[in-house]
Amino acid sequence: MPTIKDVALRAGVSRSTVSRVMNNQPYVDEEKRKAVKQAMKELGYLPNSSAQRLRGTETRTIAVLVSRIVNPFFSAIVDAMDEVAAEQSYRLILCNTRGSANQELHFLQLLRTKQVDGLILASLVNDWETIAPYTDYGPIVICNEYPRQSDGVPVVTIDQSKAMYEATVHLLKKGYKQIAYCNPITKTESDAVISPLAQDRYLGFCQAMEEAGMHMYGECLFLGHSLEDGRNIFKQMVCLANRPDAILTGSDEVAAGIIAEAKAAGWKIPDDLAIVGFDNQPHATLIEPELTTIHQPVQEMGRAAMERMLALLRKESPPPLATYLEAPLLARKST
Amino acid sequence: MPTIKDVALRAGVSRSTVSRVMNNQPYVDEEKRKAVKQAMKELGYLPNSSAQRLRGTETRTIAVLVSRIVNPFFSAIVDAMDEVAAEQSYRLILCNTRGSANQELHFLQLLRTKQVDGLILASLVNDWETIAPYTDYGPIVICNEYPRQSDGVPVVTIDQSKAMYEATVHLLKKGYKQIAYCNPITKTESDAVISPLAQDRYLGFCQAMEEAGMHMYGECLFLGHSLEDGRNIFKQMVCLANRPDAILTGSDEVAAGIIAEAKAAGWKIPDDLAIVGFDNQPHATLIEPELTTIHQPVQEMGRAAMERMLALLRKESPPPLATYLEAPLLARKST
DNA sequence: CTGTTAGCGCGTTCAG
DNA sequence: CTGAACGCGCTAACAG
Question: String of b and e for B176-195 (b: at least 16 CB within 10 Å)?
């Protein structure tokens, strides 16, 4: 594996000259510049980025942390980020934390050790106090999941309360009486703390219920975020004394799981049970009945987050601190 | 950001002693060991991995290259790899090449510059001659997509020809006459070369057709790999002079797109058109009718690939060169 | 058992 | 315009 030294030797110049050529610096003799480029090509030379990093130069690489890459919402948001990054010849590396606070911290090291220029948190499991120190090591942008306070760090998300409020109102207007609720929990190893995002959604739900003079039964509260979780939720629901006639979920995956089991059990959707998803994932319109869901603007969220990141890296005027994108309810056949 | 020097100073020892403590080496006075650990904790010290890398030590990080992370097949395979890696406290970084040969090469640099200990190719767009030199820089494992020859590099995949052969036979047995075929092409920037994987699948298809004395019409050949591609394929199909009565696709996403459009156009599946998917993605049984598809053992593929990688890193006896896992056809309602 | 020394590959002064 | 020299943070070899 050739180093800068080999290139210098072959081109008959010093290492500094090679370095200057690499970084397109002026004041290099045209002849030598050509000789160096020639030597680089012949040797298949590529600079060692660990060394460059150690020296403190940019990597044009950005890390994105997600908790569960198999979730279509996350892969879509990452895809949007990737698109913007590629346009400006940045690369992305994707870190799947599996909802582990430890993994999250491990990946934050990428920033600390200058292996990436910046880091985007699309999920968040550690306390903000734990994350905050890392802001000294490079720009951080928060997208989707967020902490209660995030001193100075840009946040891109949707108004979770409002979204869930509207979904609840939608069900109430349709006349559903016994509404169940599923919290979108990512099981953490140790503590299963409810994130601000989940809290806010629940708040929206409660507010709508209260305004309608309805109240909730504890047994109608569920947890889950995957297809499998959805299946299990239906099985639990069947056993309840007074069965819900509608359910609000935190993701289209959970909703799809419930629908699948319900249909298998011979239930009619939405007559026997109405279901609301969240995200508007690609499969929301492929299942039957088509899923009523809240459309998360993943494309825009991903793009906006990455654009803020690139702006930070260019040290432009600081981007807006918090951005709340619109997340409209899409009423379809499942309610 | 504290360095090893700061820790040494604070603990009243030399940098080498700190290094020895970090790497759990013997021959360090217990007192000093404690002092060092104390100092590390107080300073919140973490080693700079760029420096470690430059020095040539392991990173316990493995890169995985995929062409399209939004494809559930890829996110599932990555998830399985991640699981195995986590068990042995390795971390994974995910590289989305978007089918770009350039991006692929960029990411291969991670290996060259020792930023990762090993690299798994779950997709492959460059020629093997281009990739081969990188095998000098660290272990590479190939999973799913493969080159024609891969001198010494372990490959984990399925028997593509056999899988598609069986799917074709299934359709023929059911009595379908006019069978269309969709090649799973990842559009490359420049050249849209057909990969060995796609070639082999097509071979299986052709063989089955030949044995049955059937033959293909060029107009019944399509390309695509996404939901959107599937939708477009249906629109093209509608315009054909003699319409196919069945279609074999290269992924469940394409199949789902075709089904969606077909249903929207009032076609009955499988009566007006039979559809076979590929992968057995989570949503294959959620759509209506349930999709006949080839089950790719993503879990096993991902695990096997990662296990081979870890074996290589431990420099154990060389793993088997090529592994072909079973990919059975699951006959369901769409045929 | 421990500190000193010498690079890993690169970018950046600072003298020419 | 160019090369010599230094140091980024870390580890390994070598003397104590």
Answer: beebbbbbbbbebeeeeeeb
Closest by CA to A276, choosing from A321, A231, A245, is A245
The domain limits of chain A are 4-47, 53-158+298-324, 160-296
B interface mutation test: which of A60, A61, A70, A89 has the most B CBs within 10 A? A70
- Nucleotide nearest residue A52, measured CA to C1': C10
Average pLDDT over residues A159-174: 97
Nucleotide nearest to B52 (CA to C1'): D10
Chain A residue numbers touching B47 (CB-CB < 8 A): 113
What's the pLDDT at B234? 96
Q: What is the mean pLDDT of residues B106-124?
A: 89
- Its CATH architecture, for the domain B160-296, is 3-Layer(aba) Sandwich (3.40)
CB contact under 8 Å between A50 and B115, yes or no, is yes
Name every chain B residue with its beta carbon within 8 A of the beta carbon of A98: 82, 86
Helix, strand or coil for residue B258? helix
**pLDDT confidence of residue A190:** 47
For residue A189, the model assigns a pLDDT of 45
Protein CA at B16 to nucleotide C1' at D12, angstroms: 9
**pLDDT tens-digit readout, B6-58:** 899 899 999 999 999 988 888 889 999 999 999 999 888 888 878 888 888 78
CATH topology of domain B4-47: 434 Repressor (Amino-terminal Domain) (1.10.260)
Closest Cα in chain B to A231 = B286
Q: Which nucleotide, over all strands, has the C1' atom closest to the CA of B57?
A: D11
Helix (H) or strand (E) holding A158: strand A155-158
Q: Look at B1 and A44 and tell me if their CB atoms are within 8 Å.
A: no
Q: A228-250 pLDDT, tens per residue? A: 999 999 999 999 988 899 999 99
For residue A65, what is the nearest residue in chain B, using CA coordinates? B93
Asked if B76 lies within 8 A of A70 by C-beta distance, the reply is yes
CB contacts of A283 in chain B (<8 Å) are: 256, 283, 286-287
Q: Which of B202, B201, B264, B280 minimizes the C-alpha distance to B231? A: B264
Cα A92 to Cα A73, A137, B124, B317: the distances in Å are 17, 18, 18, 34
What is the CA A210 to chain-centroid distance, rounded?
Answer: 31
Q: Which of A49, A78, A94 sits opposite B109 (nearest CB)?
A: A49
Do the domains A160-296 and A53-158+298-324 match in fold? yes
pLDDT at A192: 63
Counted across chains A and B, CB pairs separated by less than 8 A come out at 129
User: What pLDDT is recorded for position B192?
Assistant: 63
Candidates B63, B70, B107; nearest CB to A75: B70
DSSP strand pairing (A155-158 vs A140-143): parallel
The pLDDT tens digits of the residues spanning B87-112 come to 998 999 999 999 999 899 889 988 88
CATH fold of the domain at B53-158+298-324: Rossmann fold (3.40.50)
Predicted confidence (pLDDT) per residue in A173-227, tens digit: 999 999 999 998 866 544 567 899 999 999 999 999 999 998 887 778 999 999 9
For residue B167 the two structure tokens come to 């799917």
Closest by CA position to A104, among listed A154, A143, A150, A67: A67
In chain A, which residues have their Cβ closer than 8 Å to the Cβ of B107? 91
pTM: 0.90
Determine contact, residues B271/B62, Cβ cutoff 8 Å: no
The answer to whether B286 contacts A259, with C-beta atoms less than 8 Å apart, is yes
